[in-house]
Write a structure and sequence with these properties.
This protein is mainly alpha-helical. The chain has 15 helices and six strands.
């Protein structure tokens, strides 16, 4: 899930550093070639690779070569938000010369087999992750369980804010236990309305924190009329120090990024997503999305796979019914 994958990677970095305090940890924003190159330049400087300050220094080749040296020691590299297939791999399995390989970022990653190095890739595009990691396991991040979603909401909204909500409730109702119950109900109802989506929960918490007089109940009241209010309260830009500066991280903006990439990669996939947006968001039959032209069957399978790869839709085990997040229909 968006944002949660990055938080899991951050926590893994903390755990890895505790286990191996002598190791190097490198964070690479992998959403664009520019952000990738900027990170590699910083890594080259940190590792003091000879010539790294020169203008013609080939950091894409030098950094993985340096990290793969046995003497470098253990390291961990996170490639975060590696979503766009075209900047990591050439089209249609195109054969590349050695000089052409550095144009595609998948060929510029270290292996670390000789010195205990580790590589983690976070992505919304399953195809990118699978092709980069090859035989390594793919870990899909599922939606939060209700108890975990509540913990996330509690960690994002400061304690005094929760207490303020309780005080506000006490001014309306007479008994403290009833106030606490109302608070719990507001939190649980809000989480259910947001379908336990981590980024949406973070967005809600940010809105409540930013507006002094706002309560969870007030925020919840903005969601029942989604086409009027939800885009407003879920489009506020969040500050997150773990994300690349300038990277949109509001709920709707992050989905817009994925949708734009789908439009570029597969027009048919974008059309099917638009069709699903006007249908019930659950259990959409595959037959309803299919064309009457049998010759397009393979193309339609590929289109649906693109949407699945970007986690814009979910399918059942048989691939006969599909669903999308309720908030995406807004």
């Amino acid at each position: 899930m968006e944002n949660r994958k990055t938080e899991i990677a951050v926590q893994y970095c903390h755990n890895y550093r505790q286990r191996t305090p002598e190791s190097h940890i490198f964070w690479v924003y992998g959403s664009t070639r520019q952000s990738f190159d900027d990170a590699y330049r910083r890594i080259a400087t940190e590792l003091q690779i000879p010539g790294c300050e020169e203008s013609l220094f080939e950091h894409r080749k030098a950094v993985p070569r340096e990290l793969d040296r046995r003497e470098t020691g253990p390291w961990l590299m996170i490639i975060d938000n590696a979503d766009e297939y075209g900047i990591y791999f050439p089209p249609h399995d195109k054969a590349l010369t050695e000089s052409e390989q550095s144009e595609y970022l998948a060929y510029c990653l270290p292996y670390g087999a000789e010195n205990g190095g580790r590589l983690i890739v976070t992505t919304r595009n399953t195809r990118v992750g699978a092709d980069i990691m090859d035989d390594s396991p793919i870990i899909e991040i599922s939606e939060l369980a209700p108890v975990d979603a509540r913990k996330l909401l509690g960690s994002k909204v400061p304690k005094e804010k929760w207490e303020y909500v309780r005080i506000l409730k006490l001014s309306i109702v007479a008994k403290h236990h009833q106030a606490a119950s109302n608070l719990d109900n507001a939190a649980d109802e809000l989480l259910q309305e947001l379908e336990y989506l981590p980024l949406a929960i973070t967005q809600a918490a940010a809105f409540v924190k930013r507006h002094k007089m706002t309560t969870l109940r007030f925020y919840l009241g903005k969601l029942p009329q989604p086409r009027l209010n939800a885009p407003d309260v879920l489009s506020m830009q969040l500050h997150d120090s773990r994300r690349q500066p300038g990277t949109p991280n509001a709920v709707f903006r992050t989905w817009q990024i994925s949708y734009h990439q789908v439009e570029v990669e597969n027009t048919e996939a974008a059309n099917k997503l638009s069709l699903m947006a006007v249908l019930d968001h659950q259990a959409v039959p595959r037959a309803l999305l299919a064309s009457r032209d049998d010759s397009k069957e393979v193309a339609e399978m590929e289109a649906l796979q693109v949407l699945l790869d970007f986690s814009l839709i979910q399918g059942d085990a048989e691939g006969e019914f599909f669903s999308m997040h309720l908030l995406q229909q807004l």
